[in-house]
Amino acid sequence: MSRKTLTRRQFVAATAMSSAALITAPYVRGAYAAGKLSIGFWDHWVPNANDASTAMVKAWGEKEKVEVSIDYITSNNNKIQLTVAAEAQAKSGHDILQMPTWWPHAYAENLEPVNDVMEPLIKQNGEVNGTVKYLGQAGGKWLAVPAIPGSQIKGPCSRIDLMKKHAGIDVQEMYPAGAPAKADNWTLETFLKAAEACHKGGVPFGIGLGETTDSVDTAGAIFQSFGAELVNAKGDVTVKTDAVRQALEYYKKLIAFLPPDAPSWDDASNNKWLISGRGAMILNPPSAWAVARRDAPQIAEQCWTHGMPSGPKGRFAPYLPYFWGLWSFSKNKEAAKSLLAYLSQPSSIEKFVAASGGYDLPAYANMTTLKTWAEEGPPKGTLYHYPNPNNHQTLSIAASPAPPKIAQQIYFQATLTKMALRYAQGEKMEATLAWAEGECEGFMRS
Amino acid sequence: MADVVVEQGQTVRAARARKPTSLRNVLGRKSTVAFFLTLPLILLIALLVLYPAVYSVHLATLNKSMQKFVGFGNFLFLFKRDTFWMVVKQSCIFAVTAVFFKALIGFIVAHFVHNIPAKGQRKWRGMLLVPWVIPPAMSTLAWLWLFDPSYSAFNYTLSFFGIGPINWLGDNLWARFSVILVNIWYGAPFFMIMYLAALKSVPDQLYEAAAIDGANWWQKIWYVTLPMMRNIIAITALFSLIVTFANFDIVRILTSGGPLDQTHIFATWAFKVGIEGSDIPLGASVSLFMVPILAIAAIFILRDVSKRGNEA
Which of A159, B138, B157, B159 is the most buried (most CB within 10 A)? Predict the structure, then answer.
């Protein structure tokens, strides 16, 4: 068996030929020449809503020659939050990951700034609301892009018939479809009287007092209507103020008219309350109405989504935005930014909103009057006021304006609902305030 | 002992014969072979048990943003929090009460099953094990519906007797009762099966001798059954105590720690603080708080068990 040896001359010649071939070869653009992109989207409640996201991302991938893969991650039992925490720890995972409310700030160090995406989008789609800026920006940098899927307002969804019968309030007249709200008299006092009347009528308002987001969001909006802040924007504890006392007094009166088991409610309880026909109002995005449309159509056709009542310091609606975050360890940031811009175009926004039956809310001022909200029903126009089309109320999140990392603790420890419940159960006002002050001081750690 | 002698003999003979290398000696030993055979398991344990444990200790020593080493700072912070001490108290109430009743119910039911004729015993054993073999996340969901705040099947049934409605998960005391009840329901079959096995190993002659001496049923239990079952009782109680202290799913599904944090235990509060509050180091510290206490308890109980084993 002969063994051929490679001479030095042959080696040099072969290397030179290979190099020349590589340099002069024509550039062939493959099907996925622009690389790969991995995306983790929130798994939508609304059936088939994920299909719209998949179709849009696929169309973009084919156009841009990027190989995309999507995972839909549920928020049930905080799976999406766990994924965010795990990927931030591992510095590996998806390129783009959808994250709820407080997470852009919580993992700000691991996120790629997206000012270059957001600035053109704001010019094109209009200004974003204050809560989106509060949650999505840090030190002038955009940490993430406000996502359309999942973003929601948890305003009142009232039973037209029961509110008329027991409280003498015509919610359709107050919030007419296709026209600005005529809700000057829709105040927290009116709300309390209506709660009392409906309670007497055997159909109490379904407002939870638990530790999950629906309960906390309602408390947040009511506290803000009184100007009550536990921690101010500078990070000072401001629990022992008249505004907080007023909010607690109000809540105590309201709790007397809520279902006795409200302290154990979770985010599904209020939906069940409305769909079963046991209550005249809940505070929730239109998912409860959407399920009622399928399972209890006679109740769905009596539902009307509208604005919050106003308090001494204004009219605040609970608002929960989702964000699309781009990890700083992503290997294809340019493609990711291009996709985020594409998903925030008006045509994409329209598709997201239509696919979710009006549940999803864009954060941009020019995008709150899409035809889906005007046309969805029955009854037709039930969602017209859901996206706050006339800027009738301030979209806010509980525990703001505290610095987001502190506010997140107040929010998830449900300090507001716990305070309301403690006081309503007979604890002295000063004891409740002292407890809350101690809790807030504990949330200051960095 | 014989192995060692043979091994040493072989080594000596081999050394005389052809002066093998020391590596050959090492590889030739039975203990080395045994080590290599167990190496995959050691690696698996190191990867899945040791690494996460060490990593969680490391996390517990970092500040909130995980950029600075703070030593025991997180623990010192926790010691100053009222809510933390409330969680410690509740975890102890939860674990001790649940383990006590699981052991008591398991002991009683094991006696009933033991006294059933052998022919029908298998069916009963199978049925009684059902709560333990259903994944707790699933069975707790069924309990959640039974306790449901607004549509409770229990309240519906009790209403026929003019009782209720009971606020199962909304009232502080009832909520604690409910989470402990579900834990007992889930864990009692484990005690039952362990105690049943122990009962079957007690020689009948001991009971016969006790009967001849005129012992009544209580004296038989106190002087024969319990001493013979001491080791198994100690081990099952220890094992269950550790698992119950670390429980998460039952409380998470039923109450999420509410109302007013009155049902939070270590794992649920650690999740609340660590994952929902994005303070992973503090969450890790909450989770690790019980480790030294349980480790000391385990050492004492297991030492006692082995001492009794040696005496036997």
Answer: A159
Structure tokens at A86: 């795990």
- What type of residue sits at position A226? F
CA distances from residue A154 to A109, A319, A359, B16 in whole angstroms, order as listed: 30, 6, 11, 87
Backbone φ and ψ of A96, nearest 5°:
-110, 135
Closest CA to A163 of A258, A302, A293: A302
Pairs of residues, one from chain A and one from chain B, whose beta carbons lie less than 8 Å apart: 93
Give A55's contacts (C-beta < 8 A, 6+ positions apart). none
CB atoms within 10 A of CB A172: 17
Residue spans of alpha helices (H) in A344-428? 346-355, 371-375, 404-412, 415-424
* Residue whose C-alpha is closest to residue A398's, from A411, A387, A409: A411
CA distance A390 to chain B (A): 34
For residue B250, the tally of other CB atoms under 10 A from its CB is 29
Q: Tell me if B258 and A263 make a contact (CB, 8 A cut-off).
A: yes
Domain extents in chain B: 2-59, 75-311
Q: Which of A210, A269, A438 sits opposite B82 (nearest CB)?
A: A438
For residue A267, the distance in angstroms to the closest alpha carbon of chain B comes to 12
B82: contact with A, CB 8 A cutoff: yes
| Interchain contact B164–A (C-beta under 8 A) | no
Taking every pair of C-alpha atoms in chain A, what is the biggest distance, in angstroms? 104
* Spatial separation of the C-alpha atoms in residues A418 and A425, rounded to whole Å: 10
Q: What DSSP line would sit under B230-289, residue for residue? A: HHHHHHHHHHHHHHHHT--HHHHHHTTT-STTTT--HHHHHHIIIIITS-HHHHHHHHHT
In the numeric block, which tokens belong to residue B22? 């020391």
Token code pair at residue A293 = 């449309």
This prediction has a pTM of 0.83
Per the DSSP assignment, residues forming a β-bridge with A39 are A70, A96
- The yes-or-no verdict on residue A177 having pLDDT over 70 is yes
Query: What Å distances lie between residue A101 and A98, A109, A356, CA to CA?
Result: 10, 16, 19
Q: Please write the tens of the pLDDT for every residue from A357-396.
A: 999 999 999 999 999 999 988 999 999 999 999 999 999 9
CB contact under 8 A, B151 and A276: yes
Architecture (CATH level 2) of domain B75-311: Orthogonal Bundle (1.10)
